[in-house]
Each structure stands twice: as C-alpha cells, then as structure tokens.
Amino acid sequence: MEGVKNSWQVLQESMQAPSFLELDVDCTAIGITDVNGPAVHFREILFLEGEIHEEPETLQSHCASLVALWTAMRTPSLVDLGQCTCIGRRLLKQEPTLGRRFAVHASQLGENSLLFVVISSTKRWNNIEAVKRMVTELVEQAGQLYSSDDAPPSAQAEQADTGLDWYQFTAREVQILKLVASGISNKQIARELGSSPNTVRNQIHALFRKTEVTNRTALAMRVAATK
Question: CA 20 to 30 Å from 204, out of 41, 126, 184, 190?
C-alpha cells in the first residue's frame, strides 16, 4: 500500500485545521477490518497517529469493540470508556488515570470489509455533532486515498497480514521489537540490552524503515499481530 502511505500527508494537513485541533485528539487510527458477525479481524493499519497506550493490544481491542459497535449502529458514534491508563498524558501530567472518549465511523468496502476511523481524546467533547462531522470527513478522505492506491493486487494481498516474519530480523532486532511492544522507553530498553539510548534509538528507526512504519505504536501493533 505504498501509494496510500505516501498520500497520508494530505490527511495529516486536514488534521491541522482549527476545528480538528479543538477536539484535542491524541490518537487517530485508520484501518481495514473484516467483520464476520461479532468477530472483527484487522487486515491492515493504514494510518496511526499518536501513542496513548502502554500495551498496543489495548488500542487494538478498543478499535475492535468500536468497529463492532459501528456495525450495529451504522452511524458515527461516540463512546466514553471512562478511566483509562494513557502513557502520553500520564507522563506529561503525572496522572495515573483519565477519562477517555472515542469516536468511530466506517464505510463498507466489500461484503464483510470495512474502512474504519477511530479518534480519541481525554477532553470532554461538548459539541457532539461537530465530532461526528469530523470523523465522517476523515472516513471520506481516507476512502478516497485508499481507492486511489496504484499498487498492484499482489502487493495489496501481501499487506493483508499486518504481522511480521521473524526470519527477516536478527536476534537483537527481535529483542528490540518485543521490548518496544512492551511499551517501555528507549532508556529502559538500553538498560535491558546493556546498550546506550542513542544506539537503541538508531536501531528502532532502522526497524521503522525495515517494517515500513513511521512510529513506535504502529511498530508495536505489528509485533502484537504476529502469531
């Protein structure tokens, strides 16, 4: 999905609009899922901005629940999950738990496939209709970007599995991948490996390139998706 990846900058620019910034969104997730009854299977993460959870499985679980909700409602929906441990806000504000709100919308791609958008914030959204409009616009933009992908079908099929093939990584890279997925910092990883934070940072950025992701959360989610 290289064509899609290279075009997300357009969507990121729209996320800098004042109406979006007012929502104080700290995480935006866009992806493709297969839905079979109550079961939600993630085929592909197209876009992920923000790192809010120590455990990547938590975000994936929340997205799955929200997508399942959307399939029942078929309309932009808001959910307040109450207190939630969020790594970014906890470190900045030194608060262990904060209320977290999610908004979800999706569009049908096929009989069982959906393109979904989930946005999240610890800010209480007073203008619910504005949030619904925003998540609807994001779905429309993401759908246009996805449908304009020029990658051949074979390349798209290769992306269906969001997991990793461990054989393409060295033993040290596998260690780092698993430590990143655990949610610990570069300094903590360095202590675990007996290395320096700068070395770890460079190794992680090399893994970004190798796995074709752009941030730690996306990398952690790919590790979590690996059988």
Answer: 41
